[in-house]
Amino acid sequence: MNILRINMKEGSIRQEMLPPKLMFYGNRGLIAKIMAEEVAPDCEPLGRYNKLIIANGPLAIASISCSGRVSAGAKSPLTGGIKEANSGGIMGYRLASLGIRALIIEDKPKQDVLFILHIGKKGAQLIDASEYKMMRIHALTKKLFQRFGPNCAISCIGPAGEMLMSAASVANTDMDGNPSRFSARGGLGAVMGSKGLKAIVVEDYKKIKPPIRNEERYKKALKQYVEEIRSAYQTSVGYTLYGTAGIIPTISEIGAMPSYGFRQGSFENADKISGERLRETILERGGEGNATHACMPGCLVRCSNIFPDQDGKQVVASLEYETLSMCGSNLGLTSLDDIAELNYLCNDYGLDTIEIGATIGVYMDLGLAEFGDAEIAKKLVREIGTGTLLGKILGEGAAITARIFKSQRAPVVKGQSIAAHEPRALKGMSIIYATSPMGADHTAGVTTRVRLDQLDPYIWLEYARDLQVKIAAFDTLGLCMFITTAGPKIPDLVVEMLNGIYGTDHGPDFIASLGKDVIWTEKEFNAKAGLSAAHDKMPEFMLEEPFPPHNAVSDIPKQHYQKFWEPSYWRP
Amino acid sequence: MNILRINMKEGSIRQEMLPPKLMFYGNRGLIAKIMAEEVAPDCEPLGRYNKLIIANGPLAIASISCSGRVSAGAKSPLTGGIKEANSGGIMGYRLASLGIRALIIEDKPKQDVLFILHIGKKGAQLIDASEYKMMRIHALTKKLFQRFGPNCAISCIGPAGEMLMSAASVANTDMDGNPSRFSARGGLGAVMGSKGLKAIVVEDYKKIKPPIRNEERYKKALKQYVEEIRSAYQTSVGYTLYGTAGIIPTISEIGAMPSYGFRQGSFENADKISGERLRETILERGGEGNATHACMPGCLVRCSNIFPDQDGKQVVASLEYETLSMCGSNLGLTSLDDIAELNYLCNDYGLDTIEIGATIGVYMDLGLAEFGDAEIAKKLVREIGTGTLLGKILGEGAAITARIFKSQRAPVVKGQSIAAHEPRALKGMSIIYATSPMGADHTAGVTTRVRLDQLDPYIWLEYARDLQVKIAAFDTLGLCMFITTAGPKIPDLVVEMLNGIYGTDHGPDFIASLGKDVIWTEKEFNAKAGLSAAHDKMPEFMLEEPFPPHNAVSDIPKQHYQKFWEPSYWRP
C-alpha cells in the first residue's frame, strides 16, 4: 500500500510506500504513528506545521463488511491534542481500491487560495477551486459530481471549515452520493480549511486485488465473521431495526440523555424522538423505515436511515442518536422535523452536530435563547454557517461560547463537548471521556448498554480501559465500532482475517496490544502538546451539580483517572 | 502579622496568624505558597475553588521606600496558571499598618450579589454593594471616598471585572486618591468579580509600630539603601526625569518597540510619544513635568507623572511606557492625548492596557479597523467596557480575539499577551516571556537595557534566569522592581534591612534562594494546572516572520527553554 504526500505550499504530490512496520496500522493508529513521527506536538493546529491525514485500514482492500471507515486526523484546534474522527461513506474503500492507505496533507499555501485534490486515471493533482469558495456541502458535492462524474468519492468542507471554525467537520459522500457521513469532531474541517483544501475527489478507475496470502484461513474467518454479525441481536436486530436512535427509551429511562443544556437526564418527550417514532415517521412518509441503509458498501448492519420531510423528500441520511439528543433533547426540541432540519443545516455548513448542540445548549442555558425554540436554534446555526459575529463565537464550540458569555457550565473535556451519554449518570463514560486522548468522544467507547451498576463510581476503571483499547484497535483497523457488539468472537475473527490476508500469524492478544500501542502513542503526543493529567477530568460544575433524575454528580475518584495510565498496563 | 480569610459563600471573616515559616514571604511569594497549599491547581479560575489573594511584603511595615507594593494573585483565567500582579498605591502600606500581610478571599456567593469588604475601626465586614453595580472605577472610588472618608485605601474592579473578562484588572488608589495603580495583568479583576467583590476599602485608623529587633543594623542598611537609590543614575535621573517612557528613543532605535500589531520594532513617530515629549507636554500644560510623582508614599524614585489634557485637567496618573507602546505605537497612534484617553478608558472600565493594546493590535492587523485610527480604538475599548458582543470577545484578550477572528498572529505566551519589549529583537525577553510561570510579563524581568548583544540567541539563558530569580525575590519582598537598577549593593542591603527588622542573620544568598523557591513553587503549581514545557515557547508566527528593522525571528534554541528548568539550578 502507498501513501500520497501532498504539500500545499509547493503544490507537490509524492507517492511513498507505506513502511512495512505500519502494515496493520490504518485509520486512527496510522494517524497516531504519522503524527508522532512527523508533527511537532506543540505546533499551532491551524498553522503550517500541522498535517491533515486521511486514512483507511488494512481490511478495506478486501471490502469486508464494516471495515471501510475513513479517518481524518490532525492536531485538533478544539482540544489542542491529537484527533482522529472516522466516518462511513465510500472514501475508505475507494482509496483502498487504488492501493492508497493514507493521504498526508502538509504545509499550507502562501496565499489565500483554495484547491481540490483530484485523484483519477491521470494521477493526482491539485486543481484550483476558487469557484467553489464558501460553497455549502450539498451544492458543492452536486457540482463536483457533475464535473467529475457520479461515481466519485468526495471528502470536503463547507463554509465552517473555510472559516477555520473549531466545530467544523469533514463531509464524506456515501453510496448514493449523499455527503452525509462526517468526520465530525475536533474541528478537523478547520484544519482542512487551513490547508486551502476544499475537497478531495477520487475517481473510480481501478480495483486493486487484495493480495490474499492464505485464502483458506481468510475465507473461513470471513464466513464466521459474517455469521456472527448476522446472528448477534444488536447487529442484526437492534441497530438494524431502530438504528442508533434505538437507545433513546433506555438512555432516557436510565437518566443519561442530556436534556435542556445538560440539566437533566430523562427527557419527558423522549417518545417523540425515539427510534420507534423515527421508524414510524419514515414509513408514514413513504420511506424505507429506519435502519435500512448502509453507510458503507456491503455493510450487513445497515443501521442508517433516510429521513424524509412531510412530502417524502430526503432531509438527512441519516438521523442519528447523538444528533437527536444533542440537537434535540439538549435543546428541548421535540419534533423530528426540527431536529432533522438542524441536522441538515449543520451538514450543509459542515459542522459537528454534537459540538453545535452542546454549544447552543450553553447559549440557551444562559437564558440568551429559549429551550424548545427550534427557529432560534436554526437561526443560530445559520449565524455560524454565515460567520456573523455571534456565529464566529458559537462556531468555536461550547468551551469558547461559555468563556465569552460567562457560563461555568461548559460540558467539555479538553475543550471538546461531551457527547450524548451523560457522564454523571454513566460512570464508565466519565472515565472514557476524561481519559481519551481525543477529548470527550463517545466513539472512544460506549458503556451505556453494559449491565453493571451505571452509578457506582468504583467499578468502571478496568472495564472502561479495556473497552477503549479494543475500540482503538478497531478504529486502527478501519472497522465500525458497532461490530464490537456482535459478540465476543469478533476480535479473534478480525485477527484471523488479517492473518489470512497478510499471511501473518498474530495471536488473540493482537487486538489488545495494537489498541494499547495506539492510545499510548496518542497520549505521548498529547503530553508533548501540553495536555497532561490535569486535563483528564470532568467539567467542574459536574462535580457539584446533581443531575436528575438520579441527582448524581461526578464522583469518580481522581486516582482512577491517574490509575488509568499506570504504565504496567500499557507497556506490560 | 496576620492573614484575614474572607469566605464569600458564608460571608465570614476570620483572622489567622501568618505562619512563622512564611515570615519573609509577601506579595508574589506568599501568593505562591498559599496557592500551593490551598488551591487545587486544576480548578476553574472563575469557580468557587479558586482564591483571590491580596498581599503586601515584609518591609512594608517599616515604610521603607519602594517596599509597599500590593499584589493580587489567583489562578488566572487568562493563562490558566498561577498569577500575581503587583501595583503601587497605598493599599500595601495600609494593610501593613494594620498588621495584615494578606487577605485570602475564597469561595463565592450563592447568588449574584456584590459586596464591599470594609476594614475599619470596628473590624472587617462585608457590606452590600448592589448600588455600585457596573460602576466604573473613577465614579466608584469617588463615591467610596465620600462614603468612607478621603483617607481610605481602595482596591476595586470596574465593569470588566464584574463581567468576568479575562483582561480585567484590579485598581488601587494612590496617595492623591487616584485609582490609577493597577494589578493589571492576567485577568485578576475577573477573579475578584467572580467572588462578588466590587471593592476592598481599608480605613486609616491604626499604625502598628514595626518590631525592629536590631535598630542599628536596620538603620545602617536603610541609610545606605537610600543613598544607593539617590546616587544611581537610573533611580535618581533616568526614571526620575522621564519615567518609564524614558526608554522610548532607545527601544525604538534598537527595534524592539512593538508597532502596528507587532509588525515592526522601530516606530517612525517615536519622538511624538517619547519621555521627552511627554515631559514637555506636561510642562506646557502647567503640569509638574514627567516623573515627579510617587506611586507609593515615601518613594525616592518618583517615576510617575500626572498627564493633563489641553486645559490642564488630569487625564491619567500616570502615562507609562507599556501603555504608550501597546496602546500607542502598536496601534499606530501618535498623539499623547489619544493614548492618554485610551489609557483613561481602560482604567475606568478596569482593563489591562497591555492586553487591550495587543488585542486591538490583532484586530487592526486583520484589517478589521485601521491602524492609526484613535477614534476606532477608543470605540473598541468602550465596546469592551460596556460588554457589547464584540466587546465580550475583545475583553477576553489577544489569544481569544485571534481565535475568533482567525489570526495566526496572536502575540501571546500561555494565553497572555506579550508586553512592549519585543522578544524577536530582545533575546533575553524571549527567555523571560517563554519561561515565566506568569505568561509573557515584562515584570518578570526586563533585559532591554542590558549591554549584551540583544540579537544573539545563545548568550541569554543564564542572565535571564538569574534576573527572573532576583525579580521574583524582590516581588516577594514587596519591592518595586525598579530599585534593582539602583546598583549591585541593593540586594544585600535589602537582606540587611530584613535582618535588622526581624532579628535574623540571612546571608547574601538569601535573595537568590528566595527567588528560586518562589518560581519553583509557581512552576509546580502550573504543572499540576496543566501548563508544561509545551507552553514555554514563543508564538509560532514569531519563529518565521522577520521583525524589522533587524528582521530577526525567534531563534532561541528549544533546549534553552528546557535548560532553564534544570533542577540542579533550582534545587541546588
Could you explain how this protein is built, in words?
- Two copies of one chain form a homodimer.
- With 572 residues, chain A is α+β, with helices and mostly antiparallel strands.
- The first copy, chain A, contains 22 helices and 16 strands.
- In chain A, a hairpin with a 6-residue loop joins strand 4 and strand 5.
- In chain A, helix 1 packs parallel to helix 19.
- The two termini of chain A are 31 Å apart.
- The model of chain A has no long low-confidence stretch (mean pLDDT 96).
- The interface between A and B is medium-sized, with 32 and 32 residues.
Number of helices of chain A: 22
Helix content of chain A: 25-40%
**First and last CA, distance of chain A:** 31 Å
Any low-confidence stretches of chain A, pLDDT <50, length ≥5?
none
- Radius of gyration from the alpha-carbon trace of chain A, in angstroms: 22 Å
Topology:
Two copies of one chain form a homodimer.
Chain A: E1 2-7, E2 12-17, H1 27-38, E3 51-55, E4 70-75, E5 82-87, H2 91-97, E6 100-106, E7 115-120, E8 123-128, H3 137-148, E9 153-156, H4 159-162, E10 170-172, E11 181-183, H5 188-194, E12 197-202, H6 215-231, H7 233-242, H8 248-253, H9 275-284, E13 307-308, E14 314-316, H10 321-326, H11 336-349, H12 353-365, H13 374-386, H14 389-394, H15 398-405, E15 412-413, E16 416-417, H16 427-435, H17 461-476, H18 490-502, H19 510-529, H20 540-544, H21 558-563, H22 567-570
Parallel strand pairs in A: 1-6, 7-12
Antiparallel strand pairs in A: 1-2, 3-4, 3-6, 4-5, 7-8, 9-10, 9-12, 10-11, 13-14, 15-16
Helix pairs in contact in A: 1-17, 1-19, 6-18, 11-13, 12-15, 16-17, 17-19
